[in-house]
Amino acid sequence: MDQLIAFLDMGGYAGFVWSSYGVTAVVLGGLFVSVWLGLRRDERTLARLQAALGGRRRGRAEQAEGADPSPAPHSASARPGPAGITPRTADNGEPA
Amino acid sequence: MTRKKRRLYFVSLGLLALGAATALMLGAMGDSLLYFYSPSDLAERPVAEGQRFRLGGLVEEGSVDKAGDTVRFVVTDMVNTVPVVYTGILPDLFREGQGVVTEGHLDAGGTFSAANVLAKHDETYMPKEVADSLKDSGYWQEGADGPPAGAPAAAQGAVRAYQ
Amino acid sequence: MHRFANPTRFLRIANAILPWSVAVMVLSLAVGLVHGLVLSPPDYQQGETVRIMYVHVPASWMALFVYTAMAVASFVYLVWKHPVADLAARASAPVGAAFTVISLTTGALWGKPMWGAWWVWDARLTSMLILLFLYLGYMALAGAFDDRQRGSKAAALLALVGWVNIPIIKFSVDWWNTLHQPASVNPVGDSGIAIDGSMLVPLFAMALAFKAYYVTTMLMGIRREIAAAKARTLRLAEVQG
């Protein structure tokens, strides 16, 4: 117990030593969390966009029945092909 | 390719010019970047009596004389010395043989009257036992001009003096 | 889409490095904290306050290191227009600024009990404060333009010009009289290392932890920037139909 108190007291410089480590922990920890949360948010936004845009392009390609072979590189199933060969999967949520 | 090369030369040349300009500027500013005068600086370029400036060096061994709140000591750079008088609280690291930076002015008698005193420590860090054993083995030379030949690695910094 | 060819390759490399840099960071941080706070001895002059050194010195090293990395990335971006170099510089700036803030505050917390002052305007402390302003200026410039590329260019130029401050910080303690003492660790030159071995363990462990922290946060930051850039192009494609 005395040892613990001596350790926490830091030879009378407790305020200076512990606040140094505290400031370091708060600044580095805070930045780490903010970068991590930002990364998660931006990657989720990207995934949502890719899903939405990929789905719409697929839908449009089907409506055009292959007449407008605009590239939609995010979706393998939307590769431009001869009319009728495009697989009519229902993964875009619309009835085929 | 040529455009990239041109950009490379352009940016490099710009940086070179910038570096040269900075070096010249720092050289010209010279003394104004000094945080304090050493006693030898003071001997070379005297400062008018009463003008405020900072004086730094080592606290000469055996020179500290405390009388109540007022303390007198001598600041030395191993070449020249200046006597200092100060009234107030000294920092924890203020000791004989250690570095000090004082702010104040010279009075008529050539004594530096300090308004505040800061301790300046050196770049050496070691546990007390190591310092004691260095002192015991005679490798300790406070204020000397460099480590003696064959001093152990840990002693190298301990025996280095302020320049 | 070829614009993303490089970032895609980069993402693969970054994702391979990330678990390792996190592991190195956690392990060396544990070693550094245990040695720094418990196992290492108090200093013969400064007592327990010497423990502040184990965060102050590595943070200061990193403040200079990250700025140099940022300047190199900015140079690569300006000359070769490498998009990942721009993202690396952008992701480095907040990390470097954080290390500079830590260096300045722990320095004040160390200076008060030992020197007798929180702050002095000597060449070392002043040039370090300028470094913080350079980091903040970089971040402000990088985000100040609607045209992202113009922001990148302006900020990269500032990073390069501001690099002259790095040798000034490093050598300020040798070139001018300062209250701050000269460097204790000199890998090159005749002065060597003026720190006892028992204190070098926490110092180098914390330095390694901080370096791994930089690698980790920078890679996460670049990954984030790449995701954001892809999202921007997708939105643009959406608008243009």
Automatic annotation (TrEMBL), chain A:
GO terms for biological process: cytochrome complex assembly; heme transport. One of its GO terms (cellular component) is plasma membrane. It is a single-pass membrane protein. Belongs to the CcmD/CycX/HelD family. Its main location: membrane. It is found in: Cell inner membrane. Required for the export of heme to the periplasm for the biogenesis of c-type cytochromes. Residues 54-96 are annotated as: Disordered. It comes from Roseospira visakhapatnamensis. Signal peptide: none annotated. The chain crosses the membrane at residues 20-39. This is Heme exporter protein D. Pfam families: CcmD (PF04995). Keywords: Cell inner membrane, Cell membrane, Cytochrome c-type biogenesis, Membrane, Transmembrane, Transmembrane helix, Transport. The keyword Nucleus does not apply. The keyword Transport applies. Residues 64-84 have a biased composition (Low complexity).
Automatic annotation (TrEMBL), chain B:
Residues 143-163 have a biased composition (Low complexity). Keywords: Cell membrane, Cytochrome c-type biogenesis, Heme, Iron, Membrane, Metal-binding, Signal-anchor, Transmembrane, Transmembrane helix. Heme binds at residues 121, 125. It is found in: Cell membrane; Membrane. Residues 29-163 are extracellular. One of its GO terms (molecular function) is metal ion binding. The keyword Ribosomal protein does not apply. GO terms for biological process: cytochrome complex assembly; protein-heme linkage. It is a single-pass type II membrane protein. It comes from the Bacteria. Its main location: membrane. InterPro entries: CcmE, CcmE-like_sf, NA-bd_OB-fold. Residues 1-7 are cytoplasmic. It holds the Pfam family CcmE. Residues 138-163 are annotated as: Disordered. GO terms for cellular component: plasma membrane. Belongs to the CcmE/CycJ family. HAMAP family: CcmE (MF_01959). Heme chaperone required for the biogenesis of c-type cytochromes. Transiently binds heme delivered by CcmC and transfers the heme to apo-cytochromes in a process facilitated by CcmF and CcmH. This is Cytochrome c-type biogenesis protein CcmE. It comes from Roseospira visakhapatnamensis. The gene is ccmE.
Automatic annotation (TrEMBL), chain C:
One of its GO terms (cellular component) is plasma membrane. It is found in: Cell inner membrane; Membrane. Pfam families: Cytochrom_C_asm. InterPro entries: Cyt_c_assembly, Cyt_c_biogenesis_CcmC, Cyt_c_biogenesis_CcsA/CcmC. One of its GO terms (biological process) is cytochrome complex assembly. Keywords: Cell inner membrane, Cell membrane, Cytochrome c-type biogenesis, Membrane, Transmembrane, Transmembrane helix, Transport. Residues 8-180 form the Cytochrome c assembly protein domain. It comes from the Bacteria. GO terms for molecular function: heme binding; heme transmembrane transporter activity. Belongs to the CcmC/CycZ/HelC family. Required for the export of heme to the periplasm for the biogenesis of c-type cytochromes. This is Heme exporter protein C. It comes from Roseospira visakhapatnamensis. The gene is ccmC.
